[in-house]
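Exercise 7. Given the encoded structure of a 368-residue chain, write a plausible sequence.
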């Protein structure tokens, strides 16, 4: 590998190559790609890494300590989502003998909704707050974060102690809620085992009610568009059973015949005769990273305002460099599709093998 090539890779990865050309050439590696070089990583820390792993597998973009921190932060987020799902599963088991309960899709204002009877088909939205255990301090309190002003009932759950507090809408007006372990001014809102139906019915009767279509509509326009194409897919594949996980934050959206799918809706390319999206998952508010190996089995891309869609296996996207098969975090790339060949813009011939149309025989597409 030429030193200038190494410099180019470092510049693209926003790192600083600290090894000089003289130092690099003096190593006289039998395999030049495997020379050790000193890098100032994007985190600002100096790092020694093998040149080929840095250039082609992104090793060393973050120093070892920062990589561990990133992994730890990501694990903390996953743990939080698992705690929330465990809380919902507990609530569902308690409530289902008395009311109908349904999980909302991601991006909606409520976490789930409840209904008594089917005559009017009206539901009450509920915001769920979960903690794993009480704070281990002198007062032994249950702490819950109330981030917004929710115009709906709020249900607070402690998993370890199996305790619940169900607040009617507009009762809580604070950002942080502390409930005493033994004594609390919120004791009247605690749901005790022998009065579950009575307490839930009281909150239900006192709350505003809506149709499920209204409640299950995401807030953002992009998620509303995703929901529209989800309904379109379900309509055309009416004989296919789509399974949707109740847990939020998973790297896949649905399952068909045991295969996991991530779904994307593209938008019109601002300059080219194609459709584009940033293909990745959100690591935090400001960073989108590539999907990783085993996140999903297939990726489903919708072309807006057309009958065209693509279903591409994970291994193909790994080969094309869009899905990450290493342990490092890689910044997400944009992926562009050209469903119509115009003006020589179709330079993505590999995608054509995975292109389908809704007006064709669609039922055979999902037979793996």
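Solution.
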């Amino acid at each position: 590998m030429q030193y200038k090539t190494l410099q180019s890779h470092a510049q693209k990865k926003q790192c600083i190559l600290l090894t000089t050309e003289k130092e690099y050439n003096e190593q006289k590696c039998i395999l030049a790609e495997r020379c050790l070089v000193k890098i100032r990583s994007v985190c600002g820390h100096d790092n020694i890494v093998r040149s080929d792993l840095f250039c082609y597998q992104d090793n060393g973009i973050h120093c070892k300590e920062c990589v561990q921190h990133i992994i730890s932060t990501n694990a903390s987020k996953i743990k939080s989502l698992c705690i929330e799902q465990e809380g919902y599963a507990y609530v569902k088991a308690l409530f289902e003998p008395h009311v109908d309960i349904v999980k909302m899709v991601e991006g909606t204002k409520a976490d789930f909704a409840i209904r008594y009877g089917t005559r009017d088909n009206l539901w009450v939205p509920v915001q769920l707050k979960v903690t794993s255990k009480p704070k281990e301090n002198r007062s032994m309190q249950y702490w819950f974060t109330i981030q917004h002003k929710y115009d709906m009932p709020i249900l607070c759950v402690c998993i370890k102690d199996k305790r619940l507090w169900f607040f009617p809408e507009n009762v809580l007006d604070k950002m942080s809620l502390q409930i005493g372990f033994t004594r609390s001014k919120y004791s009247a809102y605690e749901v005790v085992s022998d009065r579950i139906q009575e307490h839930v019915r009281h909150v239900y009767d006192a709350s505003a009610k809506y149709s499920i279509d209204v409640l299950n509509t995401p807030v953002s326009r992009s998620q509303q568009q995703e929901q529209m194409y989800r309904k379109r897919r379900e309509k055309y594949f009416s004989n296919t059973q789509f399974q949707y996980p109740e847990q939020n934050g998973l790297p896949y959206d649905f399952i068909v015949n045991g295969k996991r799918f991530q779904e994307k809706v593209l938008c019109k390319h601002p300059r080219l005769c194609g459709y584009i999206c940033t293909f990745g998952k959100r690591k935090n508010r400001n960073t989108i990273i590539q999907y990783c190996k085993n996140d999903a089995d297939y990726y489903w891309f919708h072309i807006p305002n057309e009958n065209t869609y693509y279903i591409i296996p994970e291994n193909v996207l790994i080969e094309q460099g869009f899905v990450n098969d290493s342990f490092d975090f890689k910044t997400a790339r944009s992926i562009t599709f050209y469903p119509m060949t115009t003006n020589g813009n179709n330079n993505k011939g590999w995608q054509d093998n995975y292109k389908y149309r809704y007006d064709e025989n669609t039922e055979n597409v999902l037979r793996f």
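Remark. The radius of gyration is 26 Å. Students should compare their own answers with the one above.
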